[in-house]
Write a structure and sequence with these properties.
243 residues; alpha/beta; Rossmann fold; seven-stranded parallel sheet; 9 strands; 17% strand; globular; binds NADP nicotinamide-adenine-dinucleotide phosphate
């Protein structure tokens, strides 16, 4: 039987590939992002699968409750929700820019909370469902390069963990996804990237982990080793490093 899926942040990168993989499998997908033309393009690629396209800015938090209800009605239920919307503002090593910081917190963290709270309420009542949050390895430690991108991801990690602890006993899966470097618009032009994989490969890993009811994954898995090392470097050494 086909599954009913919401992908928030489906217009490009990882979210677009997750949406495409589900449409390819014949699942019904609601695609959400601001760039409607990109969502329409994806929807048109899969004429034999049902898709709903919704232009929405995730920073309009108070629109989410009614949009969510509208989608549930149109899909006639929900099995999985993926939150893949995110931005990475480029900041200089000595720059402190509150406007950029607020934008990242709004999109990466508060937008996720607005959407995933609705899903949590719905799944809690239904007694089943899967919530997948795309975070980042960047949330594992506060680093010199982009303090508030790190913060936005650390906050979403804690939120997802708490959601998991609340909802696991009700039979609901909450998966935290921590990608390393993925070849998407977000990292275009960045220097010094390594172990880069395609967004499609990342999407397949994430869907596979969802099907296997995993709770937290690095994408690809070898980033878990990097995370382990980074998390265990003592602070007095870490603050001298440029990572
Ligand atoms: N690429 C990497 O190396 C990497 C590594 C670790 C984690 N991640 C995380 O992976 C997630 C997906 O990023 P990506 O790499 O796939 O980048 P991407 O190609 O730039 O995709 C970002 C997605 O977020 C959506 N988005 C941004 N602002 C939005 C807003 N205000 N309202 C609604 N949607 C919004 C974009 O859609 P619209 O612009 O059409 O709204 C787009 O669909 C992000 O959370 C990112 O932090 C990426």
């Amino acid at each position: 039987m086909s599954k009913k899926i919401i992908v928030v942040g489906a217009s490009s990168g990882i979210g677009a590939e997750i949406a495409k993989e589900h449409l390819k499998s014949g699942n019904e997908v609601c695609l959400i992002a601001r760039r409607k033309e990109k969502l329409d393009q994806i929807s048109n690629e899969f004429p034999n699968s049902k898709s709903i396209v919704l232009a929405h800015d995730v920073t309009k938090f108070f629109e989410v409750e009614s949009l969510f209800q509208q989608i549930i009605k149109e899909l006639n239920g929900l099995d999985e929700i993926y939150y893949a919307s995110g931005i990475l503002e480029r900041v200089k090593i000595d720059e402190f820019n509150t406007q950029k910081d607020i934008s990242m917190m709004n999109t990466n963290t508060l937008g996720a909370i607005a959407w995933l709270n609705e899903a949590a309420k719905y799944f809690q009542k239904q007694g089943k469902g899967k919530i997948i949050g795309i975070s980042s390895i960047a949330g594992d430690r506060g680093r010199v390069g982009n303090p508030v991108y790190n913060t936005s991801k650390a906050a979403i990690n804690t939120y997802l963990e708490a959601l998991r602890n609340r909802l696991a006993r009700k039979g609901i899966l909450v998966l935290t996804v921590k990608p390393g470097f993925i070849d998407t618009d977000m990292v275009k032009g960045m220097q010094g990237l390594f172990w880069v994989i395609s967004a499609n490969k990342a999407a397949k890993i994430i869907i596979n982990a969802t099907n296997k009811n995993k709770e937290c994954i690095y994408v690809p898995a070898r980033w878990a080793l990097v995370a382990f090392i980074i998390k265990n470097i003592p602070s007095f050494i870490f603050k001298r490093l440029n990572v």
